[in-house]
Amino acid sequence: ADPVRCIAFEDSFYGAIAAKAARMKVVLVPDHEDIKSPRFGFADLITGSLETISLKDIETLLKD
Fold first, then answer.
1. 17-43 pLDDT, tens digit each
2. Which helix (H) or strand (E) element contains residue 25?
3. 21 contacts: CB under 8 Å, gap ≥ 6
4. What is the Cβ-side half-sphere exposure of residue 18, based on CA atoms within 13 angstroms?
5. Which residues, other chains included, contact 47 with Cβ-Cβ below 8 Å and sequence gap of 6+?
6. Which percentage of the chain shows pLDDT scores above 70?
7. Buried b (16+ CB within 10 A) or exposed e, 9-31
8. What gap in Å lies between CA 13 and CA 43, rounded to an integer?
9. Mean of the per-residue pLDDT values for the chain?
């Protein structure tokens, strides 16, 4: 698959960095205490739970 058309769901900083390096969109689900950490500013979407992600969120990520 073309990585530009892929979404990586990650819970770790280094996993998210690897996905970005591969040119994927990144949805980050960090530990609760890290959710506002500025080091995650590169993520395309940050959420506290995968349950909160909607189809519209996915469509928006893939449009960009």
1. 999 999 999 999 999 888 989 999 999
2. strand 25-28
3. none
4. 8
5. 27, 28, 29, 53
6. 100
7. bbeebeebeebbeeebbbbbbbe
8. 10
9. 94
Q: How confident is the model at residue 1 (pLDDT cuts 50, 70, 90)?
A: confident
Structure tokens, 1: 């698959």
Side chain identity, residue 18:
A
Q: Which tokens go with 3? A: 């990585």
Number of helices (H) and strands (E) in the chain: give both, helices first. 2, 3
- C-alpha distances out from residue 45 to 15, 19, 64, Å: 14, 13, 12
Q: What is the pTM of this model?
A: 0.88
